[in-house]
Amino acid sequence: MVALADSAGLRLLQFADSPKLRSQKEHCLRRLGPPIATRSNEHLEKIERELAEYFARERSRFSVPIAPFGTPWQLAVWSRLLQHRADSTLFYEELARELGSPKAVRAVGSAVGANPLLIVCPCHRVIPKKGGVGGYAAAPWRKERLLSLEASTRENGPAAEERPPTHGTMTSNSAGEIEKEQGV
User: Fold this and answer.
1) Which of 111, 114, 123, 133 is catalytic?
2) Is 121 annotated in the active site?
3) Helix 72-83, helix 105-113: angle, nearest 10
4) Share of the chain above pLDDT 70, in %
């Protein structure tokens, strides 16, 4: 995985072979501007640990601070995703209704598809009402595997971290410098 973070928090987490990686990375770099350094920071170290726990079925929620760039609508959708139970899926329609815009199903789908923080902001838990797993920026087969992993985490007992995220509110006007780009 590839992660970008600065002092504000995790900005990007994508699979290294994701078709959206390049454009999302460029978007972050444009928003942050120079200087760019490739070194570690506390947020990158934390996400590396938390991802290892997640894939070991010991964690289902993340506590690393996050600071994704997005439109106000995207940030609202992503924030709502973070509030959902870690042991459940939801429909795009449900998410639109929860956001007070029941007819904005496609807009919800677009925001979910633009999520720069895969796994941490659990867009993979949003599924179509008609059945199946639906699309996923990093490939539908990965979405299936993530859902399967989370189901087996539930079957094996509670995850190590079940408290709600503690990263604070997402904002669309953050600035800072990129501390590291690292394969996680």
Assistant:
1) 123
2) no
3) 80
4) 80
